[in-house]
Amino acid sequence: xxxxxxxxxxxxxxxxxxxxxxxxxxxxxxxxxxxxxxxxxxxxxxxxxxxxxxxxxxxxxxxxxxxxxxxxxxxxxxxxxxxxxxxxxxxxxxxxxxxxxxxxxxxxxxxxxxxxxxxxxxxxxxxxxxxxxxxxxxxxxxxxxxxxxxxxxxxxxxxxxxxxxxxxxxxxxxxxx
Length: 177
Description:
- With 177 residues, this protein is an alpha+beta fold.
- It has 2 domains: 9-80, Alpha-Beta Complex (Outer Surface Protein A, domain 3), CATH 3.90.930; 83-163, Outer Surface Protein A, domain 3 (Alpha-Beta Complex).
- The chain is built from 2 helices and 13 strands; from the N terminus they run ββββββαββββββαβ.
- The protein has helices at residues 59-80, 137-149, and strands at residues 9-10, 16-20, 23-28, 31-36, 42-46, 49-53, 83-90, 95-99, 102-106, 113-116, 121-126, 129-134, 160-163.
- The strands form 4 sheets. A 4-stranded antiparallel β-sheet has the order 11-12-7-13, with helices on one face. Strands 1-6-5 form a 3-stranded antiparallel β-sheet.
- A hairpin with a 2-residue loop joins strand 8 (95-99) and strand 9.
- The protein is elongated and about 65 Å long.
- The protein starts with 8 loop residues before the first strand and ends in a 14-residue tail after the last strand.
- The mean pLDDT is 93.
């Protein structure tokens, strides 16, 4: 039995969850999100919680059991609290500016990099930190990873775009003889 899959997902106050036709939909203070789960999974709403069950102990059903429960949990957490990733821009002359729905990054290249982010996320720039927030964990993570990919942090000077909680292993430069 899946240890994660068998735990019911509680539905907090102020959140409305509906399950029908293979889709779980949640409405909360942060917005509305929906998720289409695999047709073999059994998802039901009872006693103020969402229960995910599997039809058999086949390998596919075992792997989908915990996954479906986690995706439903992320759906409910997204409409109640939301998700946030914080990126830090480090380097001399490196900066991020927000112009409407376009994030402009100056990362040491010949020209600044304009990045038009999707409408599902909200980006705020405070000093050298870029805050990516939204209700969908997957989209927030993808946008943060895309911004980081423009100039990944390098180990010698620590310049680049990194996650706030990320630790860069620093290397020593060339040794002089």
